[in-house]
Amino acid sequence: MKEFIYILVSAIIVQTPLFGQQAYPTLSVTKGEVVEIRAALGQGTLFDTSIEKVRAQVDQFVTTGLDVPVPKDLAGGYTHEQHKKNFLILQKAGLLFQITEEEKYAILVKETLFKYREMYPKLERHPSTKSYARGKLFWQCLNDANWLVYVSQAYDCIYDWLSVKERKELNKELFVPMANFLSVETPRFFNRLHNHSTWANAAVGMIGLVMENEDLVQKALYGLPISKEGLKDNDGGSITLKGQKEAGFLAQIDFSFSPDGYYTEGPYYQRYAMYPFLIFALALDNAKPDVKIFEYNNEVLIKGVYALLNQTNAKGEFFPLNDAQKGMSYFSRELKLALSLAFQYGSKDSSLLSLIELQKSVPLIYSGMQAALAIKAGKTVPFVKKSVMLRDGAKGDEGAIGILRADKEGEIDLIMKYAKHGMGHGHFDRLSYSMFYGEQEVLQDYGAARWVNINQKDGGGYLKENKTWAKQTVAHNTVVVDEKSQFRGKVKAADAIAPSSYIFDIDNPNLQVVSAKDTNCYEGVELHRTIVLLKDSSFENPLVLDLFAVNSEEEHDLLLPYYYKGQLMQTNVDFTQSSTLSTMGETDGFQHLWKEAEGKGAEGVTQINWFDKATFFTLTSTTTASDNIITAHIGANDPNFNLRHDPAFFIQKKGKKGRTLFASILETHGNYSRVSEFANNAAGSISNITIIDNTSEYTVVDFTNKQDEEWTFIISNKQHSDDSKHRLTIKNREIKWGGPFTLFKNELEQ
Amino acid sequence: MKEFIYILVSAIIVQTPLFGQQAYPTLSVTKGEVVEIRAALGQGTLFDTSIEKVRAQVDQFVTTGLDVPVPKDLAGGYTHEQHKKNFLILQKAGLLFQITEEEKYAILVKETLFKYREMYPKLERHPSTKSYARGKLFWQCLNDANWLVYVSQAYDCIYDWLSVKERKELNKELFVPMANFLSVETPRFFNRLHNHSTWANAAVGMIGLVMENEDLVQKALYGLPISKEGLKDNDGGSITLKGQKEAGFLAQIDFSFSPDGYYTEGPYYQRYAMYPFLIFALALDNAKPDVKIFEYNNEVLIKGVYALLNQTNAKGEFFPLNDAQKGMSYFSRELKLALSLAFQYGSKDSSLLSLIELQKSVPLIYSGMQAALAIKAGKTVPFVKKSVMLRDGAKGDEGAIGILRADKEGEIDLIMKYAKHGMGHGHFDRLSYSMFYGEQEVLQDYGAARWVNINQKDGGGYLKENKTWAKQTVAHNTVVVDEKSQFRGKVKAADAIAPSSYIFDIDNPNLQVVSAKDTNCYEGVELHRTIVLLKDSSFENPLVLDLFAVNSEEEHDLLLPYYYKGQLMQTNVDFTQSSTLSTMGETDGFQHLWKEAEGKGAEGVTQINWFDKATFFTLTSTTTASDNIITAHIGANDPNFNLRHDPAFFIQKKGKKGRTLFASILETHGNYSRVSEFANNAAGSISNITIIDNTSEYTVVDFTNKQDEEWTFIISNKQHSDDSKHRLTIKNREIKWGGPFTLFKNELEQ
Lengths: 750, 750
Ligand SMILES: [Ca+2]
Ligand SMILES: [Ca+2]
Ligand SMILES: [Ca+2]
Ligand SMILES: [Mg+2]
Ligand SMILES: [Mg+2]
Ligand SMILES: [Mg+2]
Ligand SMILES: [Mg+2]
Prior knowledge:
Two copies of one chain form a homodimer. By secondary structure, chain A is an alpha+beta fold. In chain A, about 30% of the residues lie in helices and about 25% in strands.
């Protein structure tokens, strides 16, 4: 043991650089931190097991080396995947060299870098012309920036192990050209306010820090001079934003995050963007601590990590808002970095340790070791997700995501979206809601029409159906007016103005309310949706009371979709099944829906009961016989089998003007085992819902269960202050209350 | 501790019966066994934790008692579910009384029995007229028999604790009338050879053993005199079988099980039937050991348990052959009894212990304690499922189920069905195959159209679509001739003759072959299917080579369905999607399929690549441009939403006469993570399949992968003996081999 320590110490001495003003490494881990990490090894922490996992990944390339092919393919193709593999392996090899001091890792990095150094000067832009900003190693600059963010860390780890000549050659022939390529040579890419540019800024800044090139660091932090062009990228979003005055990393932080840490493109892209935000922040904190980057904007980067964690279901999967591939979760590599950093640079919140334990590995950096030691010391406490509103907009005044949760952890997650559109990756989904029960989707948001990195699906990129289906309003659980998408499907108009938060009240865990309005997405139409998560001992699980009010002077056709999962079991609607299936329409996503059956709404309430996995669900909704109930499934006009054939039902109210209310209750109930074959509580409890009043002043609904218990919910449609006082006479009884809503139980016999 | 033992002993003494020739209990546990069980308590075995679980279930009724409502409802309704709950709880209460000696359990049994004693004499047959044999407590006698099988155990456990007067009253007013009702008063129910009657026989025999009523025991073992009627039940099966000469429990065993322990109705019903078979066998072994019931017919009851275990996937779920609800598994209560008994009365096979550990509880009987003690003693070894053929028919000469498995446990389960029809619960599915990869279905058998015990689905019974869809040939992965089901959908004709086993060869784990023929299900058509599970280092996972040969003198239209799961990714077929969807036909199940897209087969091979969960699959099949490829999904003509809307594709060869071969390879390959977003090996390896020859003598196919490696597979279509010798000239090369098939790799460049 003593001998081992001696060797360690002498190794450190030997490697101390003889010149250079900066001590290396300096980006993701510092020289001093490495000493501490080495000293803490071998205690059987999560850090130790993480090293072994990373070794297993990297060791397979130590002898063979890494192939550096001439770029040719799109995502999913060989050259793309190989260059991606290279940057991930190099970054790990660099850290392994620092921690283990085994030169084989440094050699792997060096040899691979010299392969790139050979090839890079000869490369033109990538042959594919799909991107507005074609890269050199990859089809888009974005992936080149990914490469540099990771590889700059590897380079940093071997920088003072290389000879001066080697460094100079790599700097001059590979890294400076690459940094210039990604910045001054591609300004439309570098200077946007967008996740692509965040990667670019981080890449250029990090390699600048390694090379001690202050010019690159300045460009990274503050951007290039702003051009006047109003260009569009190929996602439909603007290249520069209206009135954009600043660019660069700090402007990205200002612009991208709301004060609550919400990222306007939604959690799937926030997850992706958090890596460059946090790794460059870490590098800045190490190399330029005076920037105080983790304290910047009231610690918004750390808040961003919590915002992400709060946008996950019981499996840790991000809510699939906007363009998002379902299944991405806090088990991603980006979130592994994020959790360790949030632990170390936040408030040493030991509830984060429980999620790090679930992740089963830590990044091989100082904060990873600190988290691992804290876990070893038994400091872990559970991470409890709560109901939360995440405001959108740089000032927090442009709508929000409202998340209501039942008090049992993860039992029900209800997500209402009334945030900003989300730029090029946004969906026309205002006032939609989706819901999880435990680990299962109850009402789904479709997510994106894309198979990321699966080559046979159009190179892994966005599919045509992402625009024609996934983004459209009818693909979401929100009212569609006149079979058109919100804002007629125009991103620019949607980006210009957000819905308004009306109520978000979680003071009473048994009566949580989210309510929002939009008057912009359909001309001349006011939408006002209120969702109540109600716990009451009369019901097995919390109820979802949904009041979707539509108000317009002109007549409109209204359609409210429900993208349920599982098998429809029973309904009181007398459906007629179509003998041949036609699409529900020609445009705005309706062309992708096969209409299966239709029936008149029941007089009073329509009830639909379905089953999924082991649980029953019942929707009860006020209807009349002039309403139509439609069942359908996705998959029409899908020549390349790009869409999932998921089911839906719709409540349609045609030719409505004035005030119309969709009043519904969604019950989660019962269970069924395919092994015991016992079914419990398979039918819902709600027997009726009655709209008592729905004026510009108040909306009042009664609902009743099969035991003849009756409740009344009232919401003020004009005053949403907690301090407002209300008085209303209902059925000859005078009701007084404070605050914008109230719920009470009626004794039917008095 | 001494005091405790003293009390125990004195309790035993007090409870020793003062009269009666038989020592109680005597059915599921004997007096002597109870003493041993009590002595082994408290060692922290699985038996101890099982008692605590059962206590928790029963204790909630000790104070309240059990409701005994007047029968009224169908399955899923209150009275049905309550009587079912009652028999399950009473059986447990009886055993708890014996083991714990706490009188509260005996009191619960007694009080509930007297409630039944009050009600039963007043009952007419159940008001529902759905069953051919209406019960009194339930809508069908079957459930009444279930009740008596369980309750006779409870009664046995308290028999000598009751006063003579109480016993006499219960015997006379409840149990003798019930036994008579289920036998002499309902002979069509009692005397069938069918799982229903197995329950009846066991019920009458078990209550006969408790009451020492030898007349009932004789009826149970040997049946009532056979009547001449040729009646049908409401499943479509015959009430008595052609030439049926015997009835009763022993005849059930003779008739129901093949020498391999396969049960002709399939594993779902076998699981159900195993409970009365085994519990009555246990009772007979205890009360009439001279019958040597567990040795009867070469220990066929124990073989039946192994047959069941071998018909499960990696999750322990039974293959959904015939009428079967998916998800039923070896975690069912029937299999808990079965595994302990197979351990105790079989060969003390310690691999069964590993499954008992998974079940997490043992039955509260002697064999449950023996298994628990063996587990505690560390005797558990893994249960390894192997490839196996389970022959059907009382003599084992009426077809079989052929199960091929890859050598990694559970990696691939391939099930080919060439067994008997399976009576009223059979499907017209000859020569179909289904496949699992790990825990996922790759090619599915639909199972039954039924939601067992879910009231809103037609009282939990079989749905109309079970007959119009689930049983039909087109619902299975087998060739459909002229869009008609096998045997024109007639059960009687199908029951009369089984397919023929041709080859089942698993000598070489890298080249496993199952092959069977049928010349009866379509007039004038010979079907011969050969499935090869091939492991070769050139392929990531075992390949499935499928040669489906059809031979007929007349022209026929042939259609081969593939009920895949997941998302179609890519194909070389130029599909045209229908702009309105129509059904694929009018009858034989085709009326339930929506046709989505159609294209001409590719010249050479058609390839279809799909993705499910985390794995890719590719089917490569020989086609010409005169073939049609069709995609479809289930759900047409389904007014009550009874069907799952699962996808399928079809290979159609129209107007074929002479010898036609469907030659296909199914590859399982690659993986994709939605968290890392890495896709590996997403495209298949097979590039071509060529039919070299397909005569009455030999079928010869070549197949090639993308590395230009080539293999040839040859099967003799006439000689299936291992001793046969063959010589064939292919491409000017003479090939000689022994046995009915051979596979070799060609060097393309020689
Ligand atoms: Ca619950
Ligand atoms: Ca053999
Ligand atoms: Ca494998
Ligand atoms: Mg969406
Ligand atoms: Mg409040
Ligand atoms: Mg079937
Ligand atoms: Mg052989």
